[in-house]
Amino acid sequence: MEESLHMSKIHGTPSQEVDDVWEQIKPLYTLLHAYVRRRLREAYGPERISRSAPLPAHVLGDMWGQSWSGIVPLTLPYPGKTLVDVTPEMIQQGYTPLSVFQLAEEFFVSMNMSAMPPDFWQLSVLEQPPERHIHCQPSAWDFCNKHDYRIKMCAHADQKDLVTAHHEMAHVQYFLAYRNLPKVFRDGANPALVQLVG
């Protein structure tokens, strides 16, 4: 796609901006969706995967169709080729759990989103505390006071946690964007949309 998604090229109301961005990415989305549909039809047969009906969520890799990582073996364009793993480079460059989150913050700030507030860095748990064991399921938290947002995650300096750190910090970006709205408007409009955040 030659046309840039830079905001400077987008004018009008917020809904018009969303429509404009969608029109720019729709051709790529359509091609990717068609590719996935074809590969699923090859794997499951035309009687289970229609040429035109919506794709059944349960064949996309999880029951809700939120993560398509489970269908990578079916859709990988170059089977047998090794996927890129940045973990060795992260280790060589001396990444730590803290620097993984600092990199995620840089990513969001580079798109003109908010930097994390001071409480985030002071109160988040970004790695397993040495003095006690905690349950480490990654999660993002909004304490609904307009300044206290946290992530609880026992991160490691590897590619998997690099992706997860960006995902969890994207939740915090939502919290920051919604902080001045009444509580009823702070949750995502649809749980499926919230899962697309990372």
UniProtKB/TrEMBL annotation:
Name of the top EC class for this enzyme: hydrolase
Protein name per UniProt: Angiotensin-converting enzyme
Pfam family, one: Peptidase_M2
Family named by the database record: Belongs to the peptidase M2 family.
Superkingdom field: Eukaryota
Disulphide linkage map: 136-154
Names of required cofactors: Zn(2+)
